[in-house]
Amino acid sequence: MKRVTVHEEWCLGCHLCEYNCAYANSGIPDMVKALKGKRIFPRIKVEDGGTPGSVTFAVSCRHCPDPICVKSCISGALSKRGGAVTVDRSKCVGCYTCILVCPFGAISTDGDGAVLKCELCLSNGAGTPACAAGCPNGALTVEDIDIPEG
Amino acid sequence: MKTYVIIGGGVAAVGCVEGIRSVDKGARIVLIAGEGRLPYCRPLISYYLEGKTDFEKMKYRPEDFYTENSVEVVYDTAVSVDPASRTVALGGGGTVKYDAVCLATGSRPFVPPIPGLENVTRKFGFMTEEDAIALDGAIYPGCRVLIVGAGLIGLKCAEGLCGRAGSITVCDLAPRVLSSILDGTASSLMQACLEEHGVRFMLGDTAESFLPGVARMKSGVDVAFDVLVLAVGVRANVSLAKDAGCEVGRGIAVDTHMRTTVAGIYAAGDCVEAEDASGGGRRVMAIMPNAVIGGRCAGVNMAGGDGTFDSAVPMNAIGFFGLHALTAGTYEGELYEEKGERTLRRFYVKDGYLSGFMLIGAVDRAGIYTSLIRNRIPLDTVDFEALRKAPSMRGFSSEYRREHMEGWK
Prior knowledge:
heterodimer, A: alpha+beta, Alpha-Beta Plaits, 2 domains, two-stranded antiparallel sheet, B: alpha/beta, five-stranded parallel sheet, 25% helix
């Protein structure tokens, strides 16, 4: 199973992962058309302190071994299969219970009802997590590990 | 081969199946579902009224979940549990022997004894798919709806009916809406949002008697209506447990392993009362996450594993017309508040821990706060001042991030 590993000491705070995430999940082949002039809703978000020299890092779903979001989902839209926590947006009613329980704040919305989260680029055509693939300083890497099913 | 019996067809039962199967792949599992349907997502019935979901999507697990997990689903009701012979008697006749049983019997609507209620023809509860189907069929353009109860169920019902009825009036004896989870200021924000969409409120007032087509209110006012919805509250279904000799308060008493006081009998879901990890004492915390997690814990232990559920807290995510209110814990201790025009953020701090919060309008990443409560994280180990302004993982130490966030170096 793939997992995105965060190396916070290498994060430059460039936010490139956010753009690559939004692009990978846009379904639009051209990056400029996908992003230019649009408000983006990346599933990975860089936390920075807003001051030079402060620690920065990107946060996205950790695909927890025992995901509380899945257990808390009131619509059965969140599930964990094959190591990745995914959301069935046709079942999600946007109640935000998952937002209420995710201990890392890794689930977000685009204001359109259903929630958004990292699905490891398994179903969007990128093939491998786009955030890590495009990280210029190795702050996000993809590891292949055995994650026990929760 | 062992036999595990689950009484109740809600989401706690599904959690229990998953818990049992995580330990014992071969045991016989009998699920007694009284509603005559597979476990579904009850809170979604208001979305069904709005046309935003359907019964197929509302199934909590796909149908093949039950075959994949070799669950024998019996559409019947359990009438008694005998701990001496370890048998469950079924309403349709016959008994099932068990090695361990989980009571996942849920709750039922409380119907207040209001004079004249028996003569109201179009009256409905709002809890089950049956209720939703019946109410859906009774609504017609122009009809006047009266909802008794301004709690989570009554208000979600009001939202679900908005635009489909001539008028919607909600009354409640409490002076504010959502009084079980919000205080005055917070309630007003949610009330205003519903009022903007045409819902009318009569608070501090309730139906005292019914005449044909009319509710006579405590205040003396008469309210004419065509359809009545009763959403006054719910009561835990405890009678099976009580008759079996289990200790029962407002709910079935369970420990952190979801054991009742009688050997071999476990319980989970809306029917139980347990210790509130946010310091609220023993109480019924009838919310779906607790049902699923508690059910799973019960299942693990029934099958001989070692499961603990000691982090149950009251919490709610509710929203109307895009305005969301996320709450958790107990509202005790020192209050920190930030107010915006349509937002409110309140935090309660007691003995160095976050005991509860209320967020309205600005709810992003609220789970970071919930984790402070559920995991009993001392606030002097985090930058709480920064966290109050905006939830972040920066507010935690890098050691915490490394330790708790999988794949973090």
